[in-house]
Amino acid sequence: MAWIYLFLAGLLEIGWAVGLKYTHGFTRLVPSLLTGASMIASLGLLGIALRSLPLGTAYAIWTGIGTLGTAILGILLFGEAATAARLACIGLIVCGIVGLKLAA
């Protein structure tokens, strides 16, 4: 169950990272509230997952999921560059996440 909590925490990290773009420096109320709620929920679920998962592994996977999702959504939603080097680095993040899960 801890891995499910960790995965959901990672998805919420993507939500608040992307949400920051929509808050316009926290000047928009609704996006700011949703971003704040995502932050709290993400950290809360990470905390629950840490009850039974190793700290280093869980934190690295949480940030990896967030980084991966945020990079992909940056490309899809905001027209950020999708160069071969950038996509290769995203692939390396995936390899790292899978490796940490297998080693845990």
Automatic annotation (TrEMBL):
GO molecular function, one term: transmembrane transporter activity
Transmembrane listed as a keyword: yes
GO BP, sorted A to Z: xenobiotic detoxification by transmembrane export across the plasma membrane
GO cellular component, one term: plasma membrane
Location of the protein in the cell: Cell membrane
Topological category with respect to the lipid bilayer: Multi-pass membrane protein
Pfam family membership, one: Multi_Drug_Res
Keywords, comma-separated and alphabetical: Cell membrane, Membrane, Transmembrane, Transmembrane helix, Transport
InterPro entries associated with the record: EmrE-like, Small_drug/metabolite_transptr, Small_multidrug_res
Transmembrane annotation, as ranges: 33-50, 57-78, 84-103
SUPFAM superfamilies per UniProt: Multidrug resistance efflux transporter EmrE (SSF103481)
PANTHER family: GUANIDINIUM EXPORTER (PTHR30561:SF0), SMR FAMILY PROTON-DEPENDENT DRUG EFFLUX TRANSPORTER SUGE (PTHR30561)
NCBIfam families per record: PRK11431.1 (NF008512)
Family per similarity comment: Belongs to the drug/metabolite transporter (DMT) superfamily. Small multidrug resistance (SMR) (TC 2.A.7.1) family. Gdx/SugE subfamily.
Protein name: Guanidinium exporter
